[in-house]
Amino acid sequence: MKILAIESSCDETAAAVSENGRTILSDIIASQVEEHKQYGGVVPEIASRRHCENITRVVDDALKSANCTLSDIDAFAVTYAPGLIGALLVGTSFAKGLALSTGKPLIPVHHIAGHIAANYIAHAELEPPYLCLVVSGGHTQICEVLSYTKFRIIGKTRDDAAGEAFDKCARVLGYPYPGGIHIDRAAQKGDPNKYKLPIPKVTGSEYDFSFSGLKTAVINLAHNAEQKGEVLDGDSLAASFQKTAAEMLTEKTISAAKELGYKTIAMAGGVSANSGVRSLLEKECGKRGFRLYMPPLSLCGDNGAMIACQAYYDYLDGKRADESLNALATLSLEDI
Q: How distant is the alpha carbon of residue 226 from its chain centre?
């Protein structure tokens, strides 16, 4: 079964063709990073306009790269939630047009479920149930993957997502958007123990996260040094921040796995590309004999391949949409 999937939830216009879910025949991405970099973050209106300009070419390239035509495609899939509403609407409208014009099924896919599915592409042996840590610019949560299409969230951020904290701390340290990769690089040169940073706790919610206090502590350290005319060790502050964030994410994930009885853990989302988070989680899982699955760096960010993969399992589960499908800016994994 061949599925053509479209992803446009933020600032990447992406399309991919998959065969039976886990075999990716093409994966095309048009990134807007360089344009948004000058604004220090994604500008929703610009993102939507660029999706309109790029989507036809990206879909055509995905079909050509897979050596397919529209007649070879058995179903179409699209990210319909969550994300920037204008950006989502571009992809959703285009996919509905393809489905209506060809008379073929349309599969609505949740963006976070897609990130989780990126692991299936890289790891043929991975099957639910397992525990997954989802960390990205807009989401940070620990969820039980009960089946390919059913999820239960057991912990989530109460304020900033991990990726958002990385970007904002990078900005105060003078790095351009997107900041996560610059924090990671700087951390390799710094002393992770030089700055003592707080680890916020969420009272009464053992597995919930709070990154606002950690982010504010980094910003205050940087501003105080500037106001006093002191030289800030930016590399060490980046290393200290990355170490603290990795400890927060790893500690709660391991604790949840132990309590719930999971010995298989996965990680997904843009921040899963961070070397500090990857290495610490790998180390702690290794100590306990847990199996850890992480997507390759090429599948950590937004892409069409992960949507095409998840769409296959959604299709098998009977999920379909018609011309009434609308985009949603927010939607919990548990509500799909």
A: 34
Cβ atoms of 269 and 161 closer than 8 Å: no
Mode of pairing for the β-strands spanning 12-19 and 2-7: antiparallel
Concatenated DSSP letters for 256-318? HHHHHT--EEEEESGGGG-HHHHHHHHHHHHHHT-EEE---GGGTS--HHHHHHHHHHHHHTT
Place of tokens 């170490």: 243
What's the start-to-end Cα distance of the chain, in Å? Answer: 23
Beta-carbon contacts of 287 under 8 Å, excluding residues fewer than 6 positions away, are none
- Residue 79 Cα distances to 137, 205, 225, angstroms: 17, 30, 44
**What CATH number belongs to 2-115+300-335?**
3.30.420.40
Residue 243, CB-side half-sphere exposure with 13 Å CA sphere: 19
pTM over 0.90: yes
Give 26-73 pLDDT, tens digit per residue.
999 999 999 999 999 999 999 999 999 999 999 999 999 999 999 999
Class of residue 207 by CB neighbours under 10 A (exposed 0-12, middle 13-18, buried 19+): middle
Rounded Cα distance between 47 and 295, Å, is 26
pLDDT tens digits for range 237-250 = 999 999 999 999 99
CB 279 within 8 A of CB 287: no
What CATH number matches the domain at 128-297, 3.90.180.10, 3.30.565.10, 3.30.420.40, 3.40.50.2300? 3.30.420.40
The four Cα atoms 141, 146, 150, 155 give a dihedral, to 10 degrees, of: -20
Which one-letter DSSP state was computed for residue 123? -
Count CA within 13 A, CB hemisphere, residue 131.
Answer: 26
**Alpha-carbon distance values, 282 to 248, 271, 286 (Å):** 14, 15, 6
